[in-house]
């Protein structure tokens, strides 16, 4: 019996073919209907993109040698089944979006036409605001301890480090801060968040993992 993770089990758009034929049906998606009817093409296009996103997330979590062949298998089944144009273009457009993002990194480009996700942008801005406020107050009144402002800055920094990334642009944004800001780098390298080393928390956030809950005791 097949065990998960196996693409034929885990992916909603694939299925195991019944015996005696056997094997895997790599494209088991129902089309919306004839494109002469309004809305069917658009629906197929969106379905294709959703299927691609499911596929990309799966191979991202399970980057095995076997899964490295899946895109070719999907394409072959699309051709054999003469899959409607909307499904094909929707699927390929989503795959192409990811391919271009990775290609930009491989090519060494440092510019990006895509902005980080709203959650990352908000977390970074909150940290910058808190850091600026603390620095300004420290400059104006160096004798005061500024405990509340310092704690607000630390809390904002921790929230930013824990915020999960949803795209390569999110990863780039957080990595650039970690490399350029000495205080953030020091926190990642030497501090703990709750009972866990900050580096582990930071790396998990780059993988898109949600932060683990912390109890009232900080554990």
What does this structure look like?
This protein is mainly α. The chain is 59% helix and 4% strand. The chain has 9 helices and 4 strands; from the N terminus they run H-E-E-H-H-H-H-H-H-H-E-E-H. The strands form 2 sheets. The chain has a two-stranded antiparallel ribbon. The chain has a two-stranded antiparallel sheet with strand order 3-4. A hairpin with a 2-residue loop joins strand 3 (192-193) and strand 4. The longest helix has 23 residues, at 118-140. The protein starts with 6 loop residues before the first helix and ends in a 13-residue tail after the last helix. The model has no long low-confidence stretch (mean pLDDT 86).
Name the beta content range. Answer: under 5%
Helix content: 55-70%
Strand order of the largest sheet: 1-2
Name the helix and strand elements from N-terminus to C-terminus, one letter apiece: HEEHHHHHHHEEH
Inertia-based shape: elongated
**Count of helices?**
9
Structural class: mainly alpha
Note poorly predicted spans.
none
> Mean pLDDT, nearest integer?
86
In quaternary terms, these chains amount to single chain
Distance between the termini: 40 Å
Radius of gyration: 23 Å
Largest sheet: 2 strands, antiparallel
Number of strands: 4
What is the compact description of this entry?
By secondary structure, this protein is mainly alpha-helical. The chain contains nine helices and four strands. α2 packs across α4 and α7 crosses α8.
């Amino acid at each position: 019996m097949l065990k998960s993770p196996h693409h034929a089990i885990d992916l909603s758009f694939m299925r195991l073919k019944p015996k005696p034929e056997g094997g895997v049906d790599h494209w088991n998606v129902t089309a919306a209907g004839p494109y002469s009817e309004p809305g069917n093409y658009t629906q197929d296009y969106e379905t294709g993109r959703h299927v691609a996103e499911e596929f990309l997330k799966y191979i991202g979590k399970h980057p095995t040698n076997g899964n490295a062949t899946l895109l070719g298998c999907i394409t072959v089944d699309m051709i054999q089944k003469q899959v409607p144009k909307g499904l094909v273009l929707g699927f390929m457009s989503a795959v192409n979006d990811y391919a271009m993002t990775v290609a930009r990194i491989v090519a060494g480009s440092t510019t990006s036409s895509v902005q980080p996700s709203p959650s990352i942008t908000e977390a970074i801005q909150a940290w910058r605001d808190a850091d600026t406020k603390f620095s300004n107050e420290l400059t104006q009144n160096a004798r005061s301890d500024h405990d509340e402002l310092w704690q607000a800055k630390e809390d904002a920094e921790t929230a930013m480090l824990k915020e999960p990334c949803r795209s390569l642009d999110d990863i780039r944004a957080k990595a650039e801060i970690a490399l350029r800001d000495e205080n953030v780098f020091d926190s990642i390298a030497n501090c703990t968040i709750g009972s866990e080393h900050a580096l582990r928390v930071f790396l998990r956030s780059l993988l898109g993992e949600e932060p683990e809950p912390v109890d009232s005791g900080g554990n």
